[in-house]
Specification:
There is one protein chain. By secondary structure, the protein is mostly helical. 52% of the residues lie in helices and 0% in strands.
Length: 208
């Protein structure tokens, strides 16, 4: 029978330290050097030196970007749709697929329910993009049948994305504004808005 003798004075078995002693020395040594003779107080110069020594150019930290959250209420979204597209309450109710009393209730703070919330947010987002495009006199374009025989209001009443018409409306508005700025002595009379829009409507219909 084999017996095992344990030496009580021997060092107990220690778990293997997976931390690199070289890395620890690399970090601690500059700190000890810079704080020596300062009573343990880091000076501005020593702090800058420490940062330079331990800086690793291979490590790049991207700044966190906070996602923008739309905190507008349903009433504000509804008002945004009405104001940007310059439509009256009857047209607004038709666009949202509800009655005028319902729209008034939403504007007063009543919470929409179901799919109406999604519909309102989508149209309000589209209104934001139209507003950012700075379309001149959009109120004079929204009812005109200049989009292949349809108006922007007609599109707003459907499930189509109104953003698809934004570039065309912007081009028409800019052309109309340029034409109205032309001096009478340039050989062209100052045409009315209806004249210019009529020409634009014909040109768009012919391309379809």
């Amino acid at each position: 029978m084999t017996t095992m003798t344990i030496n009580p004075y021997s060092s107990p078995i220690k778990p293997k330290n997976t931390y690199s002693s070289h890395a620890a020395i690399k970090l601690v040594a500059p700190l000890l050097v810079l704080t020596a003779g300062t009573g343990g107080i880091m000076t501005a110069h020593s702090t800058a030196e420490l940062s330079r020594w331990v800086y690793d150019p291979r490590i790049h930290v991207e700044p966190s970007r906070a996602k923008e959250v739309d905190v507008r209420s349903p009433a504000e979204h509804v008002a945004n749709i009405r104001d940007v597209f310059a439509i009256n309450m009857s047209d607004l109710a038709s666009v949202l697929g509800v009655t005028r009393p319902t729209v008034y209730a939403w504007l007063a703070g009543q919470e929409p329910k179901g799919e109406a919330v999604i519909r309102i947010q989508q149209l309000s987002c589209a209104a934001d993009k139209f507003n950012q495009a700075n379309i001149i006199r959009l109120d004079k374009l929204v009812h005109r049948p200049i989009l292949n025989g349809r108006s922007l209001l007609d599109i707003l009443k459907t499930d189509e994305d109104p953003i698809a018409a934004l570039a065309t409306l912007k081009a028409i508005a800019d052309k109309e504004a340029q034409t109205r700025r032309e001096p009478k002595g340039a050989g062209k009379h100052l045409r009315s808005l209806d004249d210019v829009l009529g020409e634009s409507s014909v040109a768009i219909d012919e391309r379809s």
